Amino acid sequence: LTLEGVLHVVDLAEDTGVLENDKTRMMKSIIRFSDVTVQTIMTHRMKVFSLEADETVGAVLDRVQEEGYSRIPVYDDNPENIVGVVLAKDIWKSHFQGRPGTPLRRLMIAPVFVSGNMSVYRLLSILKKEKLNQVIVLDEYGGLAGIVTYEDLIEEILGEIYDEDEEKGREKITPNPDGSFQILGDAPLYLVNDVLDTRFPIRKGSQTLGGFLL
Is the pTM of this model over 0.85? Predict the structure, then answer.
């Protein structure tokens, strides 16, 4: 019995009405969990909100409130040089205690770095063992690639999760009235294959549609 054989059985169960579409996608995500890499689900560095280590609590308070993140990467000089992670609650605590001049460097905790090629299954084990909620993802050259949170891992199985005040983002794959599809470049190839019934090869350097096309 092969992995593809198991996935075929799941497809058959959906076709015969045993499984609903959402359950099929969830089961496939669980089956593939050990094969999906961190770089496939991470938030790319271009979208990462971070703060400079020498900035003070008072200087960043408005931005922290506006962005609404509970954990924020902290960099030293260069946004790609992540040196820590600061908790929003510690920033607010320092503010309410009358210490707005406190630099973030004194509040941050040590970051945990992982490779973008690590499987999300292994990352889940690390997050559980170390009791973490966020890790910093590095590329093959040791530079910042992005970040991954516990929520990203959950969304890999359940699909996108939105808070009450969070604006709903674009879906990875959107069907058009004429039968065509609009697909984001960071859509995982396995998702594209599932939805379009294609057989694009999934390799180390091409796990997303954008990577495959490049």
Answer: no
